[in-house]
Design a protein that fits this description.
single chain, 377 residues, mainly alpha, 3 domains, 13 helices, 78% helix
Length: 377
């Protein structure tokens, strides 16, 4: 592939390992800055492409493969004006104004985006601090809950459950409230990041429009400057025309001066277009850079907020365990209670036979005793 390119252009780059087809415009220009000899058509393509937003994305091969690149808003406007018969000079004037407007909007966007670099970072840090504080508090509560649960080893389960139930449930309620509060605060920060994201996106769009319109304005200005528009050429043409038509050199010179003025006006528009377009492109590129930096900072903060919310949720879940002490009497507690109550009831009945048949029981032994007392078994 390299040999084919070299053969087409009759140029032998200093480094024959370079495959120009695989390079983007900016990469080609970097080689040129380093003193590398670049094929003329590749260099011309790179210089033109560097004025667009595709300088880092489109390779020479992609650009020359016949695949049509989508037009941006500036290119679409110029094509529409050309199709409607608008002169190149009038196009220049309109694009100068378009560039000014786009530049003003981008400057406003830059003013809004610049502080967001620090704001996004601060939001991420705040979310981390909230999560760390909540986790510390929840860990303390968890230790207290586990300590209360461990007391069941020192006393009968029935009595332990009744004594600690209220304390455990109270601590778990506090833990739940802490987790909810921390989550709400972190979600509030997430909403702030959403607002920042919208500002960054708007700024990126505005900045790219400045790049696109600035580039097209420069292109129009170069076309205007490239035309034979000097006043001197106009005067000479007038003089020659006057002499050929018999009008006279003096009168022909006056006519030439008028045409020269017209051509000179075109040149002035071209010069202004190049200057304004270049300035607008520069502002747009600055805006793109700031938008990219702000987006990177925003992404890091999003990760921090998501991690913080996950950490709080995990810590809250840890404190919701302990069902055997917080959810009331378990099945084991109920069985123990019933057995204890049955035993107490039997003892009372043996002491006072009048109570034997007045209480309801489901205990098989007690039922058998009652039948024996009545002579039924």
């Amino acid at each position: 592939m390299v040999d084919a390119i070299n053969g087409n252009y009759g140029v032998k780059p200093q480094d024959t390992s370079i495959n120009w087809n695989d390079l983007t415009a900016n990469e080609v220009l970097e080689y040129e800055d380093e003193g590398q000899e670049v094929p003329e058509e590749v260099l011309a393509w790179a210089q033109d492409m560097a004025k667009t937003d595709n300088a880092d994305d489109v390779t020479y091969e992609m650009s020359t493969s016949g695949e049509e690149q989508p037009q941006n808003a500036a290119q679409q406007l110029r094509e529409e004006m050309s199709n409607n018969g608008v002169s190149i000079k009038q196009q220049g004037r309109q694009f100068i104004e378009e560039s000014k407007n786009k530049e003003d909007l981008t400057l406003q966007a830059i003013e809004q985006m610049a502080p967001l670099l620090a704001s996004a970072q601060a939001i991420g840090d705040e979310a981390t601090d909230i999560a760390d504080t909540a986790k510390t508090q929840l860990e303390v509560l968890k230790a207290q809950i586990e300590s209360l649960a461990a007391e069941k080893n020192d006393k009968p389960r029935f009595f332990q459950s009744r004594e600690t139930r209220g304390e455990v449930q109270g601590l778990q309620a506090v833990a739940a409230a802490l987790g909810t509060q921390a989550t709400d605060e972190i979600q509030g920060l997430d909403a702030e990041l959403g607002e920042i994201d919208a500002i960054i996106n708007e700024g990126a769009v505005s900045s790219q429009l400045s790049v696109d319109f600035g580039s097209e304005t420069v292109s129009i200005g170069q076309e205007l400057l490239g035309s034979k528009s000097s006043r001197n050429i106009g005067i000479v043409a007038g003089v020659v025309g006057g002499a050929l038509t018999g009008v006279g050199m003096l009168f022909g010179g006056l006519i030439g001066g008028i045409f020269g003025g017209l051509f000179g006006s075109k040149k002035r528009v071209g010069k202004e277009a190049v200057e304004q377009g270049t300035e607008t492109m520069t502002v747009g590129q600055q805006g793109n850079q700031i938008a990219e930096q702000a987006a990177d900072s925003h992404g890091v903060s999003i990760d921090s907020v998501n991690k913080a919310e996950g950490d709080v949720a995990s810590a809250s879940t840890d404190n919701s365990s302990g069902d055997d002490t917080s959810g009331g009497d378990t099945a084991a507690d109920t069985t123990t209670n019933n057995t204890q109550q049955t035993a107490d009831s039997g003892e009372r009945e043996e002491l006072d036979p009048t109570l034997a048949d007045t209480s309801i029981t489901t205990d098989p032994d007690e039922i058998l005793r009652r039948k024996e007392r009545r002579g039924l078994a």
